[in-house]
Design goal:
The complex is a heterodimer of chains A (323) and B (297). Chain A has 323 residues and is mainly alpha-helical. Chain A has helices spanning 2-29, 31-53, 77-84, 88-118, 123-134, 141-152, 158-165, 177-205, 209-217, 222-233, 235-246, 254-261, 268-271, 274-283, 288-316. Chain A is 73% helix and 0% strand. The radius of gyration of chain A is 27 Å and the shape is globular. Chain B has 14 helices and no strands. Chain B folds into 2 domains: 2-67 and 246-296, no CATH class; 69-220, MetI-like (MetI-like fold). Chain B has 297 residues and is an all-alpha fold. The chains are: A mainly alpha (323), B mainly alpha (297). Chains A and B meet through helix 2, helix 4, helix 5, helix 6 and helix 7 of A and helix 1, helix 2, helix 4, helix 5 and helix 6 of B.
Chain lengths: 323, 297
Amino acid sequence: MAVTTNTAIKTNSAINANKKRGLLHELVTNRILFLMLFPTIAFFLINSYTPMVGIYYAFVQFDFNSSLFNSPFVGLQNFEFLWKSGKLVQLTLNTLGYNAAFILLGNVLAIFLAILVSELQGKWFKKITQSVLFLPYFISFVILSVIVYNMFNYERGFLNTVLKGLGAQPVDIYSKPGAWIFLIIIFYLWKHLGYSMVIYLAAITGISDEYYEAAKIDGANIFQRIWNITIPMLKTTFVVLLLFALGSIMKGQFELFYQMIGNNGLLYDTTDILDTYVFRSLKVTFDVGLATAAGVYQSIFGFVLIMTVNWIIRKINSEYALF
Amino acid sequence: MKIKEEQSTLVFRYVAIVILILGSVACLFPFLLILSASLTNNDSIIRDGYHLIPKEFSWAGYRTVFRFPEQVMRAYGITVFSTVVGTLLGLFLMTMAGYVLQCKDFKYRNFFSFVIYFTTLFGGGLVPWYILMTKYLGLMDTYTVLIYPGLMTPFLIILMKNFIRSAVPDEMIESAKIDGANDFLIYYRIVLQLSMPGIATVGLFLALQYWNDWFTTSLFINDTKLFQLQFYLYNMINAADSISKLGAGSGVNVAGDIPTESTKMAMAIIVTGPILFLYPFVQRYFVKGLTIGAVKG
């Protein structure tokens, strides 16, 4: 009896020693793998994890000359200013609203276009259409701003040139905040539809021809085939892309908004999102405390949102969960 | 019965062709507007506005851009430099990371994958990062800042990992190990050779990101000598006096006779030119990348 306990203890301690040696042992045997991964991990530690310490900036009075932990602690004062600015609700709604529109319209229209392209016969027409629709994804947002300027400038813009040519009154779009809701969504779609369409097209190509052949023999017409085969088969891709996009629903397309609107205060009510607000507070109005507080609010709100959504999805169907 | 089915298919195809042609036109139209404006006489633009077809043809916009080529060429040089160096360095680091993270006998691969993935879920926000870069790392107005922040993204690392996993058979790595090759040798001799299409795709995503970057300059660069090409264009369009400063330093006063509008548009064409030119040759790699990325989610 005593002997068996003794050996049991011995084996236990041997296992413990092995466990303790685990990391060190790994470091030695796989040292080359660790070395190869090291720069990447260092990059994310410096670039992404160190700034998380800087969240503390939201709770101090910022002063460029003194270090972070020497700055006077002001508690929630920065958040109070942020709340009192009265813009927080509007900014949150804008950010969520635009992203929801981008995600929903972006995916639905991309599916629509992908189905149209996939049902065509001519190979070269297919290829050319796909290439042309994908093209706007490749240009920079600065060029997008040139396009917007060219089209909507009051004195010389193409839109007003056409209106004048037709004998109508020119419109000053830059003083109509409501119009920009549509313009921003349209230009988002213009730039991104080709990208998502390629993904859906790949998914459609992966559907076995047998389904379509069988449906044809059963006398299903093209609309029935699309409705009963293609669309159900795209469900997985749709859900995956949707959830992936939900992860960044509080961050949004900063470059698109900033290049289209810039610092045009007339349009902020309908077009300002958290990203642009933070950027402007940092680089234009130099209010570092406010900018940090808004950034922290954005990060935490976004994080809670993702965790909640992921938790709900895990309950419904764990296969689709992000992690 | 059969004829009826074919008819509905035909109708569908005609409608599809019409919709896709309209969509394609909508995608190309803005480029034509800019191209046309860049080739229009400036007075004509100011008088009649932008048209789809130049009312009075003129090369003056392009001539102005290249009348004092130092600034433009410098910005071009900066962007080409950061694109080439950033893409090569980023590819080197991300292919290594991708290889390690897909190695089955690397015990901590899931842990490190999560360390990388987590940065997409939560972060410190723009301001702490900005302060880190400027105050603690001292990267304001340096070449480093034009390259370093864009080197890696979680999305591209995951894409790379999936590419390597699908391109390199496990048995090949195993047999190389039995022959005594170490991991770096396996990576260098086998993995890199076999995953070239994947590397091309990730490299093109990276190059595109560097080429189109204006944000880095707007945050970290005050020195006009270090302006990226995209920011140079941005500045030209948004700062009213930047065009009249074109000839500054050359002793020539050109403020009066600069065709501002057509110059802006010519500049836009010059900045986008390389992308439009290379696009037909490279777009299939992007399609390939998206296809594999989509399969894996």
